[in-house]
Amino acid sequence: MSWIEIVPAFLVAALVLFGIGAPIAASLGLRGIAFAAVSVAMSVASIGGASILASFLGVRWNVLAPLVLSLAIAAIAIPFRRWLLARRAGPGRDEWGRPFSVQALAIGLGAALTLIHLTSGMGAPDHPSQSYDTIFHLNAVQWVIDTGNASPFEMTMTTPERSSNFYPTPWHAIVAIVVQLSGASITVATNATMLAVASLVWTVSCVFFARVLFGRSSLHTLLAGGFSATFGAFPAMLTWFGVLYPNLLAVSLLPIPLALLTAVVQRRPAFGLRVWTLIAVALASIGATALAHPNALFSLFVLGAPLLVVEIIGRVRRARPDRRARTAVAAIGAGVLVFAAIVYAFSRATTRDNAWLPTRNFPSAMREAITNTPIDLTAAWVVTVMVLVGAGIAILRPRLRWVVASWLLAALLYSIAIAWPVGPFRTAITGVWYNDSYRLAVLTPILAVPLAVLGTVTVAKWVLRASRRIARGGERREPTGRRVAIVVSSVGILAVGLSFLSVLADSTRFVGYRYALGPNSPMLSDREIEFFGTIQDLVPEDAVVAGNPWNGSSLVYAYTGRRTVFPHTGGAYPESYRDLASGLADLTPEACRTALDLGVTHILDFGDRFVFQNDDRAQTYEGLTNVQESDGIRRVAGAGDLALFEVDCT
User: Fold this and answer.
1) Band of the pLDDT at 352, cuts 50, 70, 90?
2) What's the helix, strand, coil split of the chain in %, to 5?
3) Residue 92: its pLDDT value, please?
């Protein structure tokens, strides 16, 4: 499949991600980058909210559900615009025209660079990620399409005995809509949505964050777009590790609520909104991010805490002497309540699936985080220098100090996950992220991007100042405007360009490995994907197929729509399912009883090449692996280690 063929699905994904929430952003009178950022946050919020409402009302999932909800909210907001919008059009209102032209250019720059380094590694748009979680995510999209239910409270695909089960499903709801509107396969729609989120949503979020922190400076804006594509830790890492699509969506959104909280707390330009409207939009964006993946809410707690602390300290210092004591008491009380709420939330949300072990010593881990080389990524010295220069400058600016503190906190979380000894302390701190250093490594770029922007602008000023000294010493005159533009542009291009080379090298290495499709690919080989086409011709649509999910055969569901007993390697399957997994090849009475109850008609056997080759859990499916013909089990198609069997337990 050629890359040009994925363009329709990519455009549909972009339209879904930005278009569904656009009516809400428009009803609030937002403009420019604020309109784009709030649109995508409201799209995810509408998709998450509509998935719950549609399930409750018995409405099948399709694009109309979130679109109607978004239009309804916008229709409710419009009559109240007088109370929602500021009466005077302040400086934040004029966001179209030249400011947005520069912002659009920055978004285009970041998106283009991201697409270049991701697609160069992927090989082709229909290659699936050869990873453990891919099995669940592709099948979950098919499950949403089949059941018409995208509610996060009813994702029971891998919990067949439960009537309810929570799993964050906005990602799968979005991809299902892309499949329905574009006609693309689930794999292509997944890759198109992944590319749209990584290139567009993330870049828009970074540019919006820079707009709040630095104003409408063209240089800051362009650098934010460029630097969004130069960190190997994000978004690239979540396209090849896991693969963690819901986390990719949530982290891509995170700069938006962080930017809105900054605007609220520091009383920055509110984009023409009243304070309480801005607070409501911030809360809605937080809800959208939490729906995308709940651990993003805890990430926001950590990254936003320094913002509140620094602001509280500042307000106490600025208070009149006679009110300083009362202000301090109130501030400390509020801080204690917020801290208690965060501690309570962490204690209640710590996961049990947190078996990730430390693999570094603590100093090495901190060095990796600060130098933007977590988990063996290519050394990114240019962007690291810019980040460190930016951090030094930000410390000198009271309104930006919190960015440095949040960046260091993100680095600390990563270091605790990958280097701290196993024990209650480590789990208490990083358990909500499964003690997984990969999930925490992706947080540092959120703050590193604006720090790199600030550092590059500072270096450009230093170079310009030096050039002026040279000009005075030689030509005895100030540099022309053209020379200023050349110097500043050269510094920016060099900083972004050289930084991009490291992430391009990582994509070639890591993304290329994860998406390589060949005869020995760990999850699905090219022959197995081709064999799915044969299955569509031979197996009735109402058939039920059993297979060992560890060898990729359960992806028959996503590729053909034929139901499978084990749609993922993990799940809460009842004991009767285990009887089938261990005994169907021998037609044991227990296995046959379960097969008849479930309507199992076929076994799909892809042999013993597993997604994790040395995982003992794959051995629990011996009744579905390396199956041989016998009475009641007839080979229908296949050659070598690929085999489709028809099962007759009667």
Assistant:
1) low
2) 70, 5, 25
3) 46
Residue 326, pLDDT above cutoff 80: no
Structure confidence at residue 480 (pLDDT):
55
Determine phi and psi for 482, rounding to 5 degrees: -65, -40
Which of the four pLDDT bands, split at 50, 70 and 90, describes residue 643? very high
Give the mean pLDDT of the chain: 89
- pLDDT for residue 353 is more than 90: no
Please say whether the beta carbons of 77 and 84 come within 8 A. Answer: yes
Q: Name the one residue in this structure whose structure tokens are 């929570």.
A: 166
Give the whole-angstrom CA distance, residue 84 versus residue 171: 31
Q: What pLDDT digit, counting tens, does each position of 454-488 carry?
A: 999 999 888 888 877 776 665 555 555 666 777 77
* C-alpha to C-alpha distance for 388 and 405, rounded to whole angstroms: 13
Segments of 250-352 assigned E as strands: none
Cα within 13 Å of Cα(488), Cβ side: 17
Distance of CA 560 to the CA centre of its chain: 27
- pLDDT tens, position by position, 586-622: 999 999 999 999 999 999 999 888 888 788 888 889 9
DSSP letter for 628, please.
-
Joined tokens for residue 235: 């978004």
Tell me the H-state helices in 85-185: 98-122, 132-147, 170-182
pLDDT of residue 479: 55
Contact of 403 with 451, CB cutoff 8 Å? yes
How confident is the model at residue 158, as a pLDDT?
93
Which amino acid belongs to residue 111?
Answer: A
How many angstroms separate the most distant Cα atoms in the chain? 99
Task: Give the integer Cα–Cα distance in Å for 168 and 453.
Answer: 33
Residue 643, strand partner residues? 605, 638
- Name which of 352, 134, 155 is nearest 242 in CA terms: 134
Outline where 20-131 has alpha helix (H).
Answer: 22-27, 32-57, 64-77, 81-84, 98-122
Query: Edge-to-edge, what's the strand order for the sheet holding 544-546?
Result: 563-564, 544-546, 600-605, 642-647, 633-639
Nearest to 458 by CA among 386, 406, 403: 386
E strands, 361-420, where? none
Residue type, 327: T
Query: What single DSSP character describes residue 273?
Result: B
**Across the chain, how many H-helices and E-strands are there?**
29, 5
Cα atoms in the Cβ-side hemisphere of radius 13 Å centred on 362 = 7
Model confidence band, residue 247 (pLDDT cutoffs 50, 70, 90): very high
Q: Is 545 helix (H, G, I), strand (E, B) or coil?
A: strand
Residue 404 and residue 370 in contact, taking contact as beta carbons nearer than 8 Å: no
Mean pLDDT along residues 142-162: 94
CB atoms within 10 A of CB 77: 19
The separation between the first and the last C-alpha atoms of the chain, rounded to the nearest angstrom, is 43
Residue 545 pairs in a beta bridge with 564, 602
Q: How far is it, in rounded angstroms, from Cα 348 to Cα 551?
A: 35
